[in-house]
Every structure is written in C-alpha cells, then in structure tokens.
Amino acid sequence: MGSVDAAKKAAAVKAVDEYVKNNFVLGIGSGSTIVYAVERLAERVKLENLSIVCVPTSFQARQLIIQHNLILSDLERNPKLDCAIDGADEVDAKLTLIKGGGGCLTQEKIVASCAKQLIIVCDFMKDSKALGEKYKKGVPIEVIPMAFVPVQRKIEEDLGGKAELRMAKQKAGPVVTDNGNFILDWIFPEKSYDWESTNTKIKMIPGVVETGLFVNMTHKVFYGMADGSVKEKSV
Ligand SMILES: O=C(CO)[C@H](O)[C@H](O)COP(=O)(O)O
C-alpha cells in the first residue's frame, strides 16, 4: 500500500473508532477513502456486536454496505442520522469542502444535511488554505441534462472561468450521475471567494440540482498523514 492509501486508511479507521457508537444511524459517503471506513465499520460491528443502520450516499456506498453485510436503510425509513462519514476532494481552512470528484455530490449533501455531524476522512493532500490551491478540477455542479448549455453559459458569464461538461472515460458521451443528471466542473478564476454566497448564486440558476460546495456543514476532518499519523481539525 502506498503512502496516500495508508493515509486514507489511517484517517478512516480513526474516524470510525472515535465517532461510531452502538445503535447509530450512519451516513456512508462515497469514494476511495470510504472503502476503508466501511471495512473498519464491518470489523467493529462483528467484534463488538454493534447495531448500526447505514444510509448510503451513492450506488457505490449501497454496494459497499451490502458487500459488508451491514444494515442498509434509506432516508424514508431513517430521515435523521446520528452521523455521516464521507471523503472530500479539498478542505479549506474554514472546513469548506469541494466534493463530487466521484460525481455523488447531491446525495452526499442530502445525507450530510440530515446528519447531526458530518465527519470527513481524507489524506494530507486534500488539506489547503483556500479552495483551488490543491484540487485543480474545479467545483462539480450537478445539472438537469436539457439545461447544461444555459447553465454553463450563465456560470461563465456571471462568475467567470470555465464550466466543463464532465465526459465519461469508458463510454462515448457525458458522465451520468446516480440521479440521471450531468456534471459541470466549474474551473473558477483564481481569487478569494465568499463560498456561501457563491454557492447560493450557482444554486439559483434554473437547471442546477446541487453544487459540490459544502459550506458550514463539516464538524470534523481527519487527515491521514504521510507518516501514518492522523491530524484532526474541527470548527
Ligand atoms: O465527493 C466524493 C464523491 O462524490 C468523494 O468523497 C471525494 O471525491 C473524495 O474521494 P476519495 O476518497 O476517493 O479521495
């Protein structure tokens, strides 16, 4: 295992060990770091005979829950969660996040918004002073397919930068999200942003479903470090 994967694993294990308690309803995020969190969760459930109900944030998360024989639920049965554990593409000094590198931002944000606490697990490369410093792929924005051109134009005219339609790698055409929508990656001009108002501006554009900007949602971040230690930051 390389140092980045070891860092992801260290962060995920620590978060699951510190935050998951018996009888929790737990949001399960998406991405590669979450795989380690679910592995650790399954281990603890077995060893400690815990009862944990899991609400997925994506098709991938649902599969992980099923593969590890964990209890699968949804927001209809469990609209209130004790905690959600998820990854991030970048975390700034105020714990504002860019999420959605894996395209699951909308369900991730919905599940996080239903949780008492959002706990982020990531490696040291995601830790930045200002968004855009480390993650160069922009802010993911989920859009209704028939609206992608007008949304693209509005973002570029009003906010500057480029809003690129995310294309699939192993299929001709765009990436289609778990909700049947497209993703625009907004490569924003380099300047300092008020992310709360920027997020609101983008969300007000007709056709936008959700953005990958998570503002004032994070309670704690566990950063796995290159030396195997874990650094913690909270608001
Ligand atoms: O937001 C996400 C998916 O939509 C992921 O949590 C984010 O992309 C981080 O993934 P990884 O743990 O693989 O670095």
UniProtKB/TrEMBL annotation:
<protein>
    <recommendedName>
        <fullName>ribose-5-phosphate isomerase</fullName>
        <ecNumber>5.3.1.6</ecNumber>
    </recommendedName>
</protein>
<dbReference type="GO" id="GO:0006014">
    <property type="term" value="P:D-ribose metabolic process"/>
</dbReference>
<comment type="pathway">
    <text>Carbohydrate degradation; pentose phosphate pathway; D-ribose 5-phosphate from D-ribulose 5-phosphate (non-oxidative stage): step 1/1.</text>
</comment>
<keyword id="KW-0413">Isomerase</keyword>
<dbReference type="GO" id="GO:0004751">
    <property type="term" value="F:ribose-5-phosphate isomerase activity"/>
</dbReference>
<dbReference type="InterPro" id="IPR004788">
    <property type="entry name" value="Ribose5P_isomerase_type_A"/>
</dbReference>
<dbReference type="InterPro" id="IPR037171">
    <property type="entry name" value="NagB/RpiA_transferase-like"/>
</dbReference>
<dbReference type="InterPro" id="IPR020672">
    <property type="entry name" value="Ribose5P_isomerase_typA_subgr"/>
</dbReference>
<dbReference type="GO" id="GO:0009052">
    <property type="term" value="P:pentose-phosphate shunt, non-oxidative branch"/>
</dbReference>
<dbReference type="GO" id="GO:0005737">
    <property type="term" value="C:cytoplasm"/>
</dbReference>
<dbReference type="Pfam" id="PF06026">
    <property type="entry name" value="Rib_5-P_isom_A"/>
</dbReference>
<comment type="similarity">
    <text>Belongs to the ribose 5-phosphate isomerase family.</text>
</comment>
